[in-house]
C-alpha cells in the first residue's frame, strides 16, 4: 500500500511540475496570519469541483506557503503535503464531458460523518477558490462560453483549452476556515441534515466569492447602449426633446445614442491584464511600496452587494491605483466615473476598456443627456457592477477633504429607491501619498496660476517624472456604509413609497446630505499617518518652521503617542519606527533642510517646500483638531474652568466638524471633549487645579512649548472664523449677503496671510469661508432676509468675544484695524 502511495505521489509531483511549466498563479489569503489557523486542530482544504489540475494547483500553493500538513486521521484525500476534499464529484466518463452535477463526493460525506461522531475533534475547513483567468462572462459570446471559467466545469478538452488560454493568469484565493464542529453541532442526531447544512454553507461561500472576484456578466457594449435607448425614461426624454425643439424623433434618438456611446465603458479583461503589468512596473519605478490596510472589508461586501468605492481624490493616480489594488487582491475592478476631459486620443480608449465611463462636468441644461446618464448608472447598480466615483468632484489642491458634491450621490440614491433588490454599500477609501505627483502644479494653482487642461502632451511631461521617487503610498479601506441604513435613519418609511425615474422626494436632499457627511467622515477616519505628514505637522507649528533636531524628534514622538493614547478610529494607521527614523526618511525625500551646528543640527523648511508641506499636514490635521482646539483656548487665558472649556469647544465643534469632516456626532461631542481633556492632562499639556479648574503648563517648560505648537495645528482655522465674524460685526446685521461676506473675508484673509507670513494656501480659500457661512446659517446663527442679507442677534457678539480667546494680540489688532472695530 505504501509502495502504491509512493508511486502515486511521484506521478502527481511529475504532473504538477509539468503543469507549472506553463501555469502562473496569483494567490491571496494563504499566509498563516490571514488564515488564523489553530495549530492544535487538523486542517482540511476544500475545492468546489473535482479536478486534477485544481488539485495540483492547490498542492503547489500549500507547499509554497508552508501551510499545515496532512491529517491522516481524517477520512478525506491526503497528499504528502495536505488533506483536502472536493465538494462535488465528476459525473460522466472520461470523454463524455457535460456539466457537473451538484453530487456530493464520498469524502465530503465521510468528513461530515466524522464530525458528527467525534465532537471532541474539531476540523478547520479552508475553502479554496480557483479561477482559470478572471474574465467575467459576456452575453452572446461563443468564445466566452468555451473558454471562461464558469465553475460548471465541462469536459477535459475544454479544461485543457482553458488552461492553455488562461493558465498564466490563474487566481487562487484561500478563505477563512470554518469550524466543522460549529456547523454540525445542532445536527448530532441527524447526519443527513448536517451534510446538507455544510453543503449549503460551502455552496453559498463559493458563489459569493465568485461574485466578488468576477463580478456580474458584462453586457456587450453595443447591446448595453441600445438597451439604454429602449428604457421608458429615455424614450420619454426623446419625445419631450423632439417636441420642445420641433425636430424629428429619429434625430433626437440619434443624439441620445451618441450620448450613450460617449458615456458607456467597454471593460476588457485583456486591457485590465495589460494595465496590471504596466502599472506593476510603474509603481515599482516611482514608489517605495504600496501599503494596503483593511481590504477585507471590500472583499466581504463585494460578495453580496453592489459596491460603490468612494476614495478621496488627491491625484490622477488615484483611480489607477485603486483598480490595480482591487484586481491584485481578487476583486473585480470597478466601473469608474471619469471627467470627459480625460477622454483624450489614445488615453481615452484605454481608460474606457479599463472600466472608465465618461461624464460631462455639468448637464443641468441638457435633460436628454441627464436622463441617459441616469439610466446608465441605474443599469450599473441593478446589475450588481461595482462603481467608483470621487465625491469631492475634483482633486484637492490643499490636501484637505473637499466638501462632497451631491450629483453622483443623488443619482445613486434615486437609483436605489427605484430598485432596492440589490443592496448598495459604499466603501470609503483613503489614499495617502508621501509625495503627490502633482504637488508643484498644485502650488502654482493655489498662487493663482491657471489650471492646465489635461492633454496627451501634458501626460508626456508627467512621464519625465518617473525617475523620481514619490515615497510610499497607502490605501486604507474604511468602515462600509450600507445605503439602506442611511435611508432608514433619514426616512424610516422609504420602502413603502413608490418612485419613478424622475421622482425626487422632498426628503432626498436630507438623505444625500447625510450620506455625503458619512462618506467624507469615514474616508477621513481611515487616514494613513505617514512620516511626511507628522514631520510637516510639527515643523509647521513652530514659530520659524525650524527647530533643534533633538527637540523636534522628542516632539514628534510625543504627538504620535497622543494619537495612540486616544485613537481617532480603528481604521487609522500610524507609521512604523520612531521620530528619528521619520526625520531621516523626510530628509532622504528632499523635503526638509539640515543646518549642521556644533550645539546640535537645526531642521527647517524653506522655500516652496514650506508651502508644499502644508499639503501633507492638511492630510492629517483632523486627527489633532479637538485636542488643538482645547489647548488653543489657553492662548490668552492661563486658567479656565472645565465646564467653560467644554462649552466653548462644543460651540466651535460643528464648524470644525463641517470643515474637517470629523466623525463624532453632536450628541457625543461633550463626552469626547472630556476624554481629550483627561488625555491632555496625562500628557502634561494641561494642569489640573482645584475646583475643577485647568491651567496651561508653566512658561519656559517643554510642556508649554508642546502646548503652543499643538494649538497652532488649528489656530489658523479659528482665525479664519474670527475674520468672518469681524467683518459681519463691522457692517452690522442685515447689511451683507453671503456672497459679499465670502468675498470680503477672502480678501482680508489674503492680506493677513501676507502680513503675518502664513504659508497655508487654504487660509484664504473661498470654499472654506463659503462652508463656514453656510454652517452659520444651518445652525441659525445667521438668517437670510428676503433680500438675501444676513441677519444676526446678540448671540453672535458673544461667540465673537469668546473666539478672541484664541487670537494673538497682533492678529487681533490687525483684524480690528482693518475692520475698524472697537477694541
UniProtKB/TrEMBL annotation:
Sequence ranges assigned to domain Phospholipid/glycerol acyltransferase in this UniProt record: 307-434
InterPro entries named among the record's database cross-references: GPAT/DHAPAT, GPAT/DHAPAT_C, GPAT/DHAPAT_LPLAT, GPAT_PlsB, Plipid/glycerol_acylTrfase
Pfam families according to UniProt: Acyltransferase, GPAT_C
Entry GO MF terms: glycerol-3-phosphate O-acyltransferase activity
Annotated pathway: Lipid metabolism; Phospholipid metabolism; CDP-diacylglycerol biosynthesis; CDP-diacylglycerol from sn-glycerol 3-phosphate: step 1/3
CDD domains with a match to the protein in the record: LPLAT_DHAPAT-like
UniProt keyword list: Acyltransferase, Cell membrane, Lipid biosynthesis, Lipid metabolism, Membrane, Phospholipid biosynthesis, Phospholipid metabolism, Transferase
Record membrane topology: Peripheral membrane protein
Protein's GO biological process: CDP-diacylglycerol biosynthetic process; fatty acid metabolic process
Main location: membrane
Assigned EC number: 2.3.1.15
Residue ranges of the motif HXXXXD motif: 312-317
This protein's GO CC annotations: plasma membrane
Subcellular localization: Cell membrane
Catalysed reaction equations from the record: sn-glycerol 3-phosphate + an acyl-CoA = a 1-acyl-sn-glycero-3-phosphate + CoA
NCBIfam families (UniProt xref): plsB, PRK04974.1
Domain notes: The HXXXXD motif is essential for acyltransferase activity and may constitute the binding site for the phosphate moiety of the glycerol-3-phosphate.
Family: Belongs to the GPAT/DAPAT family.
Protein name according to UniProt: Glycerol-3-phosphate acyltransferase
The gene coding this protein: plsB
